[in-house]
Amino acid sequence: MLYREAGQFKTSYAKDQAIFPILQDRIMMALMLVVAFVAVPLLASEYWLSTIMLPFLVFSLAALGLNLLTGYAGQLSLGTGGFMATGAFAAYKLAVAFPEMNIIIVFLLSGLITAAVGVLFGLPSLRIKGFYLAVATLASQFFLVWMFNKFPWFTNYSSSGVISAPPRAVFGDFFVTGSSASPINKYLFTLAIVCVLALAAKNIVRSHIGRGWMAIRDMDIAAEIIGIKPLQTKLGAFAVSSFYCGISGALWAFIYTSSVEALAFDITRSFQILFMIIIGGLGSILGSFMGAAFIVLLPIFLSNAPTMFGLNISVDLISHMEFMIFGALIIFFLIVEPHGLARLWQIGKEKLRLWPFPY
Amino acid sequence: MEFLTAIFVSPFVEIYEYPLFFIEVVLGGLLAGVMYSLVALGFVLIFKASGVFNFAQGAMVLFSALTLVGLIEHGFPIWLALISTIIVMIVLAMAIEKVVLRKLVNQEPIILFMATIGLSYFLDGFGQTLWGSDVKVLDLGIPSAPIEFSGILVNQFDLVAAASAGTLVAVLAIFFHKTRIGRALRAVADDHQAALSVGIPLKTIWAIVWAVAGLVGLVAGIMWGTKLGVQFTLTLVALKALPVLILGGFTSIPGAIIGGLIIGMGEKVAEVFWGAAFGGAIEDWFAYMLALAFLLFRPQGLFGEKIIERV
Amino acid sequence: MDARTFGDVVLRVDDVSLSFGGVQALANINFEVRDGQVLAIIGPNGAGKSSMLNVINGFYHPQHGTITYKGETRRQMKPHQAARQGVARTFQNIALFRGMSTLDNIMTGRNTKMHKNLFWQALHMGPARKEELEHREFVENIIDFLEIEHIRKTPVGRLPYGLQKRVELGRALAAEPELLLLDEPMAGMNLEEKEDMSRYILDVNDEFGTTIVLIEHDMGVVMDISDYVVVLDYGRKLADGSPDEVRSNQLVIDAYLGVAHD
User: Are A164 and A180 in contact (CB under 8 A)?
Assistant: First the structure.
């Protein structure tokens, strides 16, 4: 009885098109925002903020980016890591070259640079489809990581090869990067960015741009025949997706790990983000968040669960089992619910609408 | 200016001045390419018969090598270890078919592909859980000292690898074209529905194909394991097989061989003669870039079939 | 039907030949379509009818011959160019976007008319919002016309075949086409559905003057709604003319129609 649409009539197309047309959904979203912006910083420990919330937010952004490209536009990409690396290094070079520039501008510019790189490596998608495209994106992944590793220009010729992100404040004393930045500052800053970008993503996918992407994904020939230009649409998807992945990479380097290294963005990273969107749900904004949460929390759960149950398992074994469980879960999800956690959530909501009636 | 010379001039000068060395590098590359072909063969077999792009092929290679080494370390004599591993791989293949593939029969190819990625991770973790994760040495007594042919040094081991690959391909060719089962496999590769309608047992065929792929994976695993030591990076080798498949097409056995040879040779020659100009280690990405270049001109690979889209 | 008057020639197919490898799909096809006409292409299976439509909208490129559309003669055209010039079509094996709802599918038909760029879309304010709502209204009129309000939010993959065909028609109509190509729009429908579909097609032709080329197997429908008929067989044009002329043409009877047995 809680979750009912009865009595909520839409009197205009505008109202029908709202992101949360059902009142209960709007209330829940508002609650979640309050919890995220107010309750969490007040109640969560530094450990939670730094090792769980921050990576969750940063990964969600990358997952969002990849989902736009692969889930919505249907272009399979294994180059996510490479694009994140581009964002991280672009942000680093910009921040060092223009110390006066506000960090938000730095991030935005690094996103734009990554978008350009994404368009370049996305050009093959005009000729190549499906798995073949995945292999082409591997070329970008390996090349980019090699390039950032090889040429000392990117690390400003540092002798150790590992560089740390310079400290920056958003305004006044509100430091978000560097050693003086508190976890709460970092968390709130990242949360704000992710919320804005998630809203933008949601708006984009329900616009004609998003529909164009989904049309190309579902049947690209028919899409072309009804007038959707494949070039603009596919490259647009690469551009927007890379923008998101680039900012995610910049956030990763500047805010989460405080260091910029190419190795953090290798092929395993690309696979990790792909898993997030498979488990979370392809073609779903919510799914990107759920997948990211799942992948961030799983290893923590796995390392703590045995002790909770009184078992003693070695760290090695745990990491092997992590692999096994990951793999098994992916297969499980693909068999049981190929549309991921997001679909399960939707089904849950539909059942809730009927509750307490069976149908 | 220096960079341009390094790309367009010096390598050719070097090749001209040291022809024997060049041939050595080419041969070395070709033989390395054979190793890639072995992995690619497994992919092709499965893709031909079931249309599934088995990303787990690399993990199967690793798993078979791990099992073999593990059994040997536990005191099994080599011949017994080999036979046991073969049995294990066959059982594994059938299990995969039953648990994973059967449930996903009607899904889109991309879902199947992602399932095999999951499978790859699972096998990886499983193998390491069973046998531990340190690098293992696989010594089957294959000679590895280099021998000399009129001034050119060739590695004996590579020759053995090439010979095994050649034998494998010959056996597979006979199997596919001369036996009844082979014919059935080719029918299934062409059209599942049609094959079903003439009474070919699809599930059995798939189980056979995966078992054969498992065996091919074992041969590849033995070769790679001896060369590199048995470790996680073997799964990364599987990634290298992808450019091979792009060149050779996903459905052609000769294509897998030729593709492997081209990639192997191209990589080595590029690294040795052009690598310095770029700062080295261009092997990391050269194969993929080569594949990308090929795809732009021939989206279906050298040997693949041209897809005519119908609306 | 009483004799109707039609405008100029909108589409002319000149000596078009198309082959795939060794298979000749179309050989020296000639016909013309006038503004406002309903032209039916009929013939046995494999005669090349769908290929003909594919050539008209640029999906297949003929090896020989030209297409003249709205005065411009060309041999090759990209499909999305055809779409932007007012050609819309439906497909024999329904080419809807399965991951999207009915409403979204029909809205994609408006994509060529929606221009507000990425930045405004991301904000979903001002000009982007206005544009989206305007097009939504237009699409809702089509939904009304085709009587599919009740399935507007349903993912099209879940709809029965007949409704999917209707949604596909809606998507084609959303583009406000001048030339509408329909590939077996009534295949697999029962009598009632066929009557509905015929009514929609005739209404579109009546109200908007849209020129329509359709492929159809049901001779009753062809007789009833078409002004002109072209008969294809093995890639060649067998005959053309008014429905009555074609129906009594001996060649056509032998190849395709057959005779009623007493």
Answer: no
Tokens of A52: 């769980």
Q: What is the pLDDT of residues A262-296, one digit of tens each?
A: 888 988 899 899 989 988 988 899 999 999 999 89
Q: Give strand pairing partners of C38.
A: C212
Q: Are B154 and B147 spatial neighbours (Cβ–Cβ below 8 Å)? A: yes
CA C177 from centroid of its chain's CA atoms: 10
Tell me the ipTM for this assembly.
0.85
Contact B117, A131 (CB under 8 A): no
Q: What amino acid occupies position C2?
A: D
Structure-block tokens of residue B252: 């052609």
A108: distance to nearest CA of chain B, Å? 29
Whole-number Å distance between alpha carbons of C116 and B56: 44
Question: B-chain residues within 8 Å CB-CB of A136?
Answer: 288, 291-292, 295
Say what the pTM is.
Answer: 0.86
Task: Quick: pLDDT tens for B202-217.
Answer: 777 777 777 777 778 8
What residue type is A195 in one-letter code? C
Q: How many residues belong to chain B?
A: 311
Q: CA torsion C49→C53→C59→C60, rounded to 10°?
A: 40
CB contact under 8 A, A335 and B103: yes
Selected residues 271-310 of chain B with any CB under 8 Å from a CB in chain C: 308
User: Closest by alpha carbon to A95, among A107, A112, A83, A86?
Assistant: A107
Phi-psi label, residue C36: left if phi above 0, alpha if psi -120 to 50, beta otherwise: left
Give the Cβ contact number of residue C163 at 10 Å: 19
Residues 6+ apart with CB under 8 A from A66: A77, A80, A241, A245, A273, A274, A276, A277, A288
Rounded distance between C-alpha atoms, residue B186 and residue B188, angstroms: 5
The alpha helices in chain C, defined as continuous H runs, are: 49-56, 79-84, 102-108, 118-123, 126-145, 161-174, 191-208, 219-225, 243-247, 250-252
Mind spelling out the 3-state secondary structure of B156-190? HHHHHHHHHHHHHHHHHHHHHHHCHHHHHHHHHHH
